[in-house]
Each structure stands twice: as structure tokens, then as C-alpha cells.
Design goal:
Layout: H1 2-18, H2 25-30, E1 35-47, E2 53-65, E3 74-79, E4 81-82, E5 85-86, E6 93-96, E7 99-100, E8 103-108, E9 112-117, E10 126-137, E11 141-142, E12 146-152, E13 157-158, E14 162-171, E15 179-188, E16 198-202, E17 205-213, E18 218-226, H3 237-267, H4 289-295, H5 303-312, E19 316-325, E20 328-337, H6 345-355, E21 360-362, H7 368-385, H8 395-426, H9 432-449, H10 456-477, H11 479-486, E22 491-493, E23 499-501, H12 502-514, H13 517-528, E24 536-537, H14 544-562, E25 585-588
Parallel strand pairs: 1-14, 13-25, 19-24
Antiparallel strand pairs: 1-2, 2-10, 3-9, 3-25, 4-5, 6-7, 6-10, 8-9, 11-12, 12-18, 14-17, 15-18, 16-17, 19-20, 20-21, 22-23
Length: 589
């Protein structure tokens, strides 16, 4: 499974280069249409003063390109990780045909680094010899009672075929006496146990070779050493220092996050009234239906509810007319201005947007301009609504949260750019912890920004709305209690002699925010009977259900227009091709 993941990571890194935005798909496919005449690698193994392994790598790749402008060079994917730790510092030297070659681009992944060799404006043709030098550290792994160098020479990440692949390992004096005189090698695709065609030991120089390797096939070798010959990988003192710094900063961030969460819980609580919730029969004072929906954390009041509120409070008159349409007659609604002296700021803004100094407004489904103005009125009102007496004001907490939020965003941006680089170059294992803790802090900040605790007046108003909903639900669920409730309600007689229940029509706008609009309209339909409210002029008796449906369609129209790491096993126990370190690859570009 590890080998499969390893292979996918290599292919993914190479794929990201080959199919980069600067190259078309067809061009990327063509650039792999070449082969390697030879791949030879020389590995010089030594130790440092702390007995840790150092391996200098000298690779020579002879590529044969078509005799036309297809390729600018090759790509070489070099492993950065082995056995769970970093082995490559990202530095290489490159020559082509004996002259120093440019590196056009690099791409760093979690387990490989891909180098694009050549110049973007220079094509290469025919036979080209690339020489690459780099140094690896801590490449020896413990395998029970022995240590070993278990390595892939060319790697399994190439789409090209190789006519010949060879690897030569040379020991310096510090390593010669640690060699156990045991070697194995394999050739083929990932997981192949086929022995390579040649392996030799002569004067502490080891050679391995294989011919005619196809795409995604490699030469893999393993060299056995005495147990304890090499010191295991250890992080540098500076890497340990970084880990301590990352851990300390993480604890500090989490401590602040806990404190902020405490403040959210403490300061985010709404005031309690300590009073029972009782049914309410009249709409609340000093708040409109839009503000009530915000305060109630309910459905946002529709435009139809706001228009109804204007009508039942005597600011406008709603007129229903029949007009000829494409498919016959259809209903059209006209709003007539009755009283422009509204006390509520939202009501004044809505009246101004609808009438614009005129006395009538015909509701149209394609009035984009008016829809945008109404949408703006609503947003402006809701933005300023939380500044009213219904909400608690805690300037210190708001300032603390704002500063924390800003620092969190800045920290995440800087951390994502810098910390990963420090980890790659210095080997820190805990580089991700501050980033994770900042994400936790950011989540708490977002939660805090979304909390608006209610003041005592706000809690009283919310409980009043709960009582109003209780009454309206009572009328919906239990018809007998409902009839008993309205028996003493005030009835008024209009100039035309019709009757209406003043109480019920005042509550019409609130049905939508309580989610009982349909059932409440059925109640109104029964109560109105053959009579028509004085704020409505239409063809015959007032039909609450039909009117509500039309108003909701208008609301929908207005809303739509206004918002218009690499690890490996043992080469001597279950070893195979592609199972070692160095599982890189490459391609053309």
C-alpha cells in the first residue's frame, strides 16, 4: 500500500508539471515522445563526524529527442523524503553536453522535488547528455539485525524507456569496514522480484545494471551493512528549537482561543426576563415585521409582509385590477399612497422607493430598478438594526474579537507561506500545529462575530413575539379556543358597511415569519367572509389566499432582480523493484 501511495505521489508531481497551464494538453503528450539511451548513476557513500550517512550522487542521462522542435529539456524528480525524514536539501548542479545547464523551474511536493532542466525559449534535438549532481543524507535504514542502503536508481516515475541503466556504489574509507559483503538487485515495474541482469563486488566498488527497461520500470539495489555502522537520523538543534517554538506558540494561541471562547459564552448570553411567556393578541410596538424576523431568528420577512404591514397600518391602499394578458385576463396590483408620514425608518424608506413622489405604483415583475432600491433599503435597515436598544453593547469584546480576527487571518497567510518552507529546509515536525491552532481560533472568531446577545428590552420583545406566535398557533390548532379568543376582539365597520376583524389583519404580516402563513390565511378567509378590508379595493370579496400567493410571487421577483512521505521495506526481506528510496522519475517538457 505504501508503494502504491508513493508511486501516485511521484506521478502526481510529474503530472502537475507536464499539464501545467503554460503547456497545452497535446503539447504535453508530445514532449514525452523520446527515450533514454543510457542512465548511469554513481553513488559515493560516506559518514560525517556524527556517524550519519552522506551519499553524493552523480547521474548521467543520455536522452534521444526527435530531430524537430519538440522538447526544451527533461524533468528530473528527486526524492526529498526517505523513511519518514528529509534526505534532500533541494540543491542540484546540472550540465548538458559538458556545459552548465539552466533550471527553468522547480516544484516542491511533500515527497519529491521536480526540476525542469533547460530554457523555455531553447529547443533540443537528437542525442543530449545531462549530468546531475546532488547530495543526500541519512539514507541508511535499520532492518532488524543489520542496516542497509535500499535504493531505486532511475526510479519508477518515467514514461520513457531506458536502453541501459547502471548504478555504481563507492565506499570511502569510513564505510569500507562496515560493508557485510551482501548485495541484491531487482529490475522491472513496481513490486517486481526479477533479479537485475548484472551485479558485481570488486575492491569495495559495487555495480548493478539492467537493459531495456520500459516505461515506469526501474533498477533497484540493496547493500547490507553491520548493525550500528551508521547513526540513525536525528533532528538538528535548530529543528528542535523550532519545534519548541511551534509548540509554545500553539499553546499560546490555544490559550487565547479558550479565553475568547469563555468571553463568547459569558458575553454572548442574552439577558433573561425571568417572566413566563403568555399569549399576545396585538402586534408589538416600536418594531416592524422585518426587525421582528431578525430578532426572532426566524424566516426573514418577505416584501409581501412589509407591504401588508404598510397597508394594515393605513399608509397605502392595495388595488386589484384585471388586465388583458397574453393568455387571457390576469390580476394586476396597484399601490396607492394614503399617508407618507411614517414614523418607522424602514417604512419611510420603502414608501420613498416605491412611489418616488408619485401617488401610485403598479407592481411589475420586471421592475429591476425598484427591486434593487427595496433590497438596499432592507439591507441598510438590517445593518443598523443591531445598534438599537434590543441588543447588548460590549465595545471591549467587539474590539478584542476584531483584533483577534485580523491577526488570525494575517497569521494564517504568513504561516502558510513561511512555516512550510522552514519545515522543508530545517526538518521541524511540529510546523503544522500553529496553523491548526490558528484555524481553531478563526472558527471561534467566526462564531463570535455571528453572536448578537439581546439586551433586557430585546429579550422582552423576543418573548412577546413568542407569545404572539403562541396565540396564532393556538388559533390554528384549536378552532374552539381560537373562536373564543376573538369573541371580544375589536370589530370595526368600514364606510362601505363591511365588517372585518381588525386584530387578525394586523397579525397578517407576522404569519410569514412564524411559518404559518397558509394556515393563517385560511383563518382570515373564513373571518372575512363576503367583506373586504378598507385598505383593499378589488373585484368582489377579498381572497386572502389568492392575495398572499400573488404577493409572494412579487417578493420572489423583487429578490431575484435585486440580488441580481516516503518509507520502504527491506531489500533483503521481501524486496522488489521500486521498493527502495530514490523512487523518483521524470519526463520531458
Amino acid at each position: 500500500m505504501k508503494n502504491i501511495i508513493k508511486q501516485i505521489l511521484i506521478f502526481g508531481a510529474i503530472f502537475a508539471f507536464v499539464f501545467s497551464p503554460s503547456q497545452g494538453v497535446s503539447a504535453a503528450t508530445d514532449t514525452n515522445n523520446f527515450y533514454f539511451k543510457d542512465f548511469s548513476a554513481n553513488y559515493t557513500l560516506s559518514k560525517d563526524e556524527n556517524n550519519r550517512s552522506i551519499m553524493k550522487v552523480h547521474e548521467e542521462l543520455v536522452a534521444v529527442f526527435p530531430n524537430y522542435d519538440q522538447n526544451r529539456g527533461i524533468e528530473r524528480a528527486i526524492p526529498t523524503m526517505f523513511d519518514g525524514h528529509r534526505v534532500f536539501d533541494g540543491k542540484i548542479k546540472v550540465w548538458r553536453n559538458g556545459s552548465e545547464e539552466s533550471i527553468a523551474d522547480t516544484e516542491s511536493g511533500d515527497v519529491v522535488e521536480v526540476f525542469r532542466l533547460g530554457k523555455s525559449d531553447v529547443y533540443v534535438q537528437g542525442e543530449q547528455k545531462y549530468t546531475i549532481e546532488y547530495t543526500l543524507t541519512d539514507v541508511i535504514k535499520d532492518s532488524g539485525d543489520y542496516q542497509e542502503l535500499y535504493w531505486d536508481a532511475n526510479g519508477t516515475g518515467w514514461t520513457q524507456r531506458f536502453e541501459n541503466v547502471s548504478a555504481t556504489i563507492t565506499f570511502d574509507d569510513s564505510v569500507k569496514h562496515d560493508f557485510s559483503n551482501a548485495i541484491v538487485c531487482f529490475a522491472g515495474g513496481e513490486g517486481s522480484t526479477k533479479n537485475c541482469s548484472s551485479k558485481t563486488i570488486e575492491d569495495n566498488i559495487l555495480t548493478f545494471s539492467e537493459q531495456n527497461l520500459s516505461s515506469y520500470q526501474t533498477l533497484t539495489f540493496a547493500v547490507k551493512f553491520k548493525q550500528g555502522s551508521f547513526s540513525p537520523y536525528e533532528k538538528s538543534s535548530f529543528a528542535n528549537f523550532l519545534d519548541i517554538g511551534f509548540l509554545a506558540s500553539t499553546l499560546a494561541i490555544l490559550g487565547f482561543a479558550i479565553y475568547l471562547l469563555y468571553r463568547v459564552v459569558k458575553d454572548g448570553k442574552s439577558e433573561k426576563t425571568n417572566k413566563p411567556i403568555i399569549p399576545q393578541y396585538l402586534p408589538p410596538k416600536n418594531i416592524n415585521v422585518l426587525g421582528a424576523s431578525k430578532l426572532f431568528f426566524a424566516y426573514q420577512a418577505k416584501m409581501s409582509a412589509i407591504i401588508l404591514e404598510l397597508a394594515v397600518n393605513g399608509y397605502i391602499e392595495i388595488r386589484e385590477n384585471e388586465v388583458k394578458g397574453f393568455l387571457g385576463k390576469k390580476k394586476e396590483y396597484t399601490l396607492k399612497l394614503i399617508n407618507s408620514d411614517a414614523k418607522d425608518s424602514l417604512h419611510r424608506a420603502i414608501l420613498d422607493s416605491l412611489f418616488k413622489g408619485k401617488s401610485e405604483y403598479i407592481i411589475k415583475n420586471n421592475d429591476t430598478k425598484t427591486g434593487q432600491e427595496l433590497y438596499s433599503d432592507i439591507n441598510t435597515y438590517l445593518t443598523n438594526f443591531e445598534k438599537r436598544v434590543f441588543y447588548k453593547s460590549n465595545k471591549k469584546f467587539e474590539k478584542l474579537n476584531a483584533i483577534s480576527f485580523a491577526l488570525c487571518i494575517i497569521g494564517l497567510i504568513i504561516g502558510s507561506m513561511a512555516i512550510g518552507g522552514l519545515m522543508e529546509n530545517l526538518g521541524s515536525d511540529l510546523y503544522f500545529l500553529p496553523v491548526v491552532s490558528l484555524i481553531v481560533l478563526l472558527i471561534i472568531n467566526i462564531i463570535a462575530l455571528g453572536i448578537s446577545p439581546l439586551s433586557l428590552k430585546g429579550s422582552e420583545m423576543k418573548e412577546y413575539l413568542l407569545g404572539l406566535k403562541m396565540y396564532m398557533k393556538m388559533a390554528e390548532v384549536d378552532r374552539l379556543k381560537y373562536l373564543q379568543s376573538v369573541e371580544g376582539a375589536e370589530r370595526i365597520i368600514s364606510n362601505e358597511g363591511g365588517a372585518k376583524v381588525k386584530l387578525y389583519e394586523k397579525l397578517m404580516p407576522y404569519a410569514s415569519i412564524f411559518g404559518i402563513e397558509k394556515s393563517w390565511n385560511r383563518v382570515l378567509e373564513v373571518e372575512y367572509g363576503d367583506y373586504t378590508p378598507d385598505w383593499y379595493v378589488g373585484q368582489g370579496a377579498f381572497n386572502a389566499m389568492a392575495f398572499s400567493s400573488t404577493m409572494n410571487n412579487i417578493s420572489s421577483t423583487i429578490n431575484s432582480y435585486s440580488s441580481s512521505t516516503g518509507s520502504s521495506g527491506s531489500g533483503f526481506s521481501g524486496g522488489s523493484a521500486g521498493g527502495g528510496g530514490g523512487w523518483g522519475g521524470g519526463g520531458g517538457w
